[in-house]
Write a structure and sequence with these properties.
Number of strands: 9
Protein name: Diguanylate cyclase (GGDEF) domain-containing protein
Mean pLDDT: 89
Strand content: 15-25%
Number of helices: 12
Order of helices and strands: HEEEHHEHHEHHEHEHHEHEH
Largest sheet: 8 strands, mixed, barrel
Low-confidence stretches: 1-9
Bound molecules: ligand C2E, calcium ion
Shape: globular
Organism: Bittarella massiliensis (ex Durand et al. 2017)
Helix content: 40-55%
Structural class: alpha/beta
Radius of gyration: 19 Å
Domain EAL: 23-278
């Protein structure tokens, strides 16, 4: 069990200590990388699947474009950034980048999109959380109902009252709120009872671990059905085959995000893709 930073070092095993040193180095490097603008938003398109496939938006996903090590995926630095709290600055930086781009997109006559960014637990717990996001949205005069904030379910568990208040405040300021990674964690469907969430993100890859495809589909179908009755939109994430798309369409899922249609891509590629869609 870990002690507080700076006081509990004596208790660390060698490997834990090494890991901590690595994390400290990563944090220092990360701080500098933020200043140098080495973090870039990648965009993974989302497609509405009811009645043909239409690109309806994107999730903004962070990449570290490292001068020596190339493109570093988030799994290699987000956990360390979450521990150090640097994730809050990174999330806000990503959101600002997204807003900046979206303003340019709209100014250039681009059509409305649904643009989602991830918000970490630490970010949500900051006192100025709603204010920062709302003020940034207003700074770029972005319309209501198009910017989406994704938070994971683990966060809502245990802090339901706070979570409820935050979602209400975000709604007042024109944000769409989504619950990320449903199906990956201690998924409490119970949460949906009380939370006025707009979108539910179903991690289909999680369900793929099941042995019986038939049973898997019954579970997914019923979650979608339940969400619909609660007027919650459903995005299926991690969709890799057209077979799954066909099933999801039939099950009433609204939107698909997955390698079957597109991987996360740099802005230039995303813009090209948008143009292609007309
Ligand atoms: P996430 O929020 O669940 O994002 C979806 C992840 O699933 C992305 O991984 C995406 O590339 C991947 N994915 C999407 N479709 C498919 C598919 O069909 N097959 C497979 N195998 N994977 C698919 P990515 O970009 O590596 O991000 C991993 C996680 O890192 C994210 O999971 C999120 O939790 C975190 N993350 C990424 N960017 C940010 C950020 O700016 N802020 C915060 N707080 N977390 C971030
Ligand atoms: Ca997400
Ligand atoms: Ca997710
Ligand atoms: Ca995930």
């Amino acid at each position: 069990i870990k002690g507080e930073a700076g006081s509990g070092c004596a208790f660390f095993t060698e490997s834990l200590r090494r890991q901590n040193l690595q994390e400290a180095a990563l944090e220092a490097e990360g701080k500098q990388a933020l200043r140098l603008g080495q973090f870039q938003p990648y965009f993974q398109p989302k497609f509405d699947i009811q009645g043909g496939e239409r690109l309806s938006g994107a999730e903004v996903l962070c990449r570290w474009i490292h001068p020596d090590r190339g493109v570093i995926p988030p799994c290699e630095f987000i956990p360390a950034f979450e521990k150090s709290g640097l994730i809050v600055q990174l999330d806000r930086y990503m959101f600002r980048q997204a807003c900046q781009w979206y303003r340019r997109h709209l100014d250039g006559g681009g059509r409305p999109l649904n643009l989602a960014v991830n918000v970490s637990r630490a970010g949500l717990l900051r006192e100025d959380f709603v204010d920062y996001y709302a003020k940034t949205k207003e700074e770029f005069s972005l319309p209501d109902g198009q910017l989406e904030l994704e938070v994971t379910e683990s966060l809502a568990l245990g802090g339901e009252t706070l979570f409820l208040q935050l979602v209400q405040q975000l709604h007042q300021r024109g944000f769409v709120c989504s619950l990320d990674d449903l199906g990956s964690g201690y998924s409490s469907l119970n949460l949906l009872k009380n939370l006025p969430i707009d979108v539910l993100k179903l991690d289909i890859l999680f369900f793929h671990k099941s042995v019986d495809k038939n049973r898997e589909r019954i579970v997914v179908r019923n979650i979608i059905q339940m969400a619909r009755e609660l007027h919650i939109r459903v995005i299926a994430e991690g969709v890799e085959s057209m077979d799954s798309v066909a099933f999801l369409r039939e099950a009433g899922c609204d939107t698909v995000q997955g390698f079957v249609f597109a991987k996360p891509m740099p802005l230039a590629d995303f813009e090209r893709r948008l143009e292609g869609e007309g």
